[in-house]
Amino acid sequence: MSNTISVIVPCYNEEKRILPIIKSLKLSRSIIEIIVVDDGSDKKSQKILSHLSGIKLITHPQNLGKAKALYRGLLASRGNIVVFVDSDLIGFTPRHLQLLVNPIIKHGYDLTIGDIECILFPFKLSGYSACYSGERAYRSRILKKYPQIFSAGGYVDGFLVEAEMNRLFFGKYKIAKVLLDGVGAYYKICKYGISGFLNDFKVMKHCLNYLGIKEELKQLKFIRSINYLK
């Protein structure tokens, strides 16, 4: 069976940042559909999204959280490979998309985690940036076996959905890690000022409280043990 790729982009008030990522995804010839899930954005964002061509737009009337947005996109997808991409990435190109899907297509992996390069050093060194990365590719049939993932971690700005994916998949499936060189993301402080900076720490605390320190350390150790696939 030939491989078909669906890309799902959750979006919440990213009207200033989502256009470059959508433009980049449209350049890829391997994608059969780009699904943007607007998770209760403001009217300005809704207007911009509604005028985008070449995407499948799903709109939540209110903010339900990242997990629900991803799940809604997953249920609407047709590809046998599903790629999750955050809407605020900087420097993401079709080559990076291929880095995410090639381990599955060419090497028989079940999922790929993309580690963005341009991020604060402590997050890189600890493995945090990879462990809770939103840039992931999955075999769709595997992901659809675990609908509980998307009810366990609905915190909109958090990593709970990724943390729950890790809990279920680490050590059970064949996982690749790739470096998304030259790719970065907007820090919360750039988006929301000091409140965004403080929210980053709130998110990390929320994730730790959810997982417990033993499970979080286990996940970080696992992701550090995987070498980047080239």
Automatic annotation (TrEMBL):
Residues 6-119 form the Glycosyltransferase 2-like domain. Gene3D superfamilies: Spore Coat Polysaccharide Biosynthesis Protein SpsA, Chain A (3.90.550.10). InterPro entries: Glyco_trans_2-like, Glycosyltransferase_2, Nucleotide-diphossugar_trans. It comes from the Bacteria. Coiled coil: none annotated. Pfam families: Glycos_transf_2. PANTHER family: RFBJ PROTEIN, UNDECAPRENYL-PHOSPHATE 4-DEOXY-4-FORMAMIDO-L-ARABINOSE TRANSFERASE-RELATED. This is Glycosyltransferase 2-like domain-containing protein. The lineage of its organism: Bacteria, Candidatus Shapironibacteriota.
